[in-house]
Design brief:
Layout: H1 14-31, E1 33-37, H2 38-57, H3 60-70, H4 73-81, E2 94-101, E3 108-114
Antiparallel strand pairs: 1-3, 2-3
Length: about 120
């Protein structure tokens, strides 16, 4: 039973799902926008928003929590350096734009991007 199980499986086991979400979050924070499926974008959005909220705090504990969540010190350093970009915003740092179905399997594709 799935009682108290949060999140989507995304067609993989839990370790692969966790690794995929880390990779997607790192890509969004590095490139500011990526193209992915709708369900993956909906799953990675809270993770990206939490990392940016930690970057706005800017203390050592927040940096260590962000490194633990992403596993990439360089990306965390970049996000923490650019945290003033989101100072006037209280949340909602990402936007999902729908593109339509993918040609091969008709999976709904989207662009997830950071809001300026």
């Amino acid at each position: 039973m799935r009682h108290l199980k949060r999140g989507r499986k995304l067609g993989t086991d839990s370790a692969h799902t966790r690794a995929m979400l880390k990779s997607l979050a790192t890509a969004v924070l590095t490139h500011d926008r990526i193209k992915t499926t709708e369900t993956r974008a909906k799953e990675v959005r809270p993770l990206v928003d939490k990392i940016i909220t930690l970057a706005k705090k800017g203390d050592v504990h927040s940096r260590r929590v962000a490194i633990s969540a992403l596993g990439d010190k360089d990306t965390v350093a970049k996000v923490f350096a650019a945290a003033e970009r989101f100072e006037g915003r209280e949340g909602g740092y990402t936007r999902i734009l729908k593109l339509g179905p993918r040609k091969g399997d008709a999976a709904p594709m989207v662009i997830i991007e950071l809001v300026d």
